[in-house]
Design goal:
The chain is of the alpha/beta class. The chain folds into two domains: 144 residues, 3-Layer(aba) Sandwich (Rossmann fold); 107 residues, Rossmann fold (3-Layer(aba) Sandwich). Helices cover 45% and strands 18% of the residues. The strands form two sheets. It has a six-stranded mixed β-sheet with strand order 4-3-1-2-9-10, with helices on both faces. The chain has a four-stranded parallel β-sheet with strand order 6-5-7-8. Helix 1 crosses helix 10 and helix 2 packs across helix 3. The model has no long low-confidence stretch (mean pLDDT 95).
Length: 260
């Protein structure tokens, strides 16, 4: 099956990266809406329009399923896309339940974009889990810009994270939930700043489990490099320079994957 992974930018590569390891028999399309990134500072109506345009393109590529590998786009548009399109559509959900299951009665900091933090979806999830007293929400919009320009290690990144994390008494926390796929690239810098007991959790595995279930896929090992077509806002990526750039992101994800 040909499966599409869609994100506002290169954050969704973290979901594709995991899929390439557990679904080696499938074919993949990765669509980064580089013309409109970042989504997190846009209005919900703008994001809905961007996502709809991407879906029109992707469905024309005869994909069998679409993974919205973007928490912001999931929050703003997945419900509408499911009403409009009949193929399996899988969105992202911050790993709040996983954090609370693993570390009961310990606080969780959920980091995401402004749209996700303000969105109805995440607050319904928190209410459903009866977790208002255990979940703190923090928007980290600048991390998206840092990730898009591959600025992973700099004084600017470290100072930004230190400032954003300063208000919290970390002795009361178990984990940081990475509620934006762009944030996975910064686990080493976060690890440097935060106390040793803080763990990092994301929704990538849960999203792919849902994809496997809905699309009736076989999890296994096989080809080491399943085929991937890359698109920037509908334009196929063919230049060796850009393909090397994408490969460098995947190598970085290899490094970040071992940090928990």
């Amino acid at each position: 099956m040909k499966i599409a992974f869609f994100d506002s930018g290169i954050g969704g590569l973290s979901v594709l990266h995991h899929a390439m390891k557990i679904l080696p028999d499938e074919e993949f399309i990765f669509f980064a809406d580089e013309d409109n990134v970042p989504y997190g500072v846009k209005s919900r109506e703008q994001v809905l329009g961007y996502v709809d345009a991407a879906f029109k393109f992707l469905t024309a590529q005869n994909v069998g399923a679409i993974v919205v590998a973007c928490n912001t786009a999931t929050s703003a548009a997945v419900r509408a896309m499911r009403e409009k399109y009949s193929l399996p559509i899988v969105g992202m959900e911050p790993a709040i339940k996983l954090a609370l299951d693993l570390y009961p009665n310990r606080k969780v900091l959920v980091t995401a974009t402004e749209i996700t933090i303000r969105g109805e979806k995440i607050h319904k999830l928190i209410n459903r889990l009866h977790a208002k007293n255990l979940v703190n929400l923090r928007a980290l919009p600048k991390l998206v810009d840092f990730a898009e320009r591959q600025e992973f290690h700099s004084d600017a990144v470290e100072n930004y994270l230190r400032e954003e994390f300063a208000p919290y008494d970390w002795e009361n926390f178990s984990s940081v939930v990475l509620g934006c796929t762009h944030f996975n690239y910064f686990k080493d810098t976060m690890k440097k700043i935060l106390p040793a007991q803080i763990k990092f959790l994301d929704g990538n595995a849960g999203t792919l489990n849902q994809l496997v279930r809905l699309a009736n896929l076989r999890v296994g090992e096989g080809k080491k490099n399943p085929p991937v077509e890359y698109f920037y806002s509908g334009r196929r990526v063919t230049s060796s320079e850009e393909l090397a750039r994408l490969e460098s992101y995947l190598r970085r994800l290899d490094e970040m994957e071992v940090i928990i």
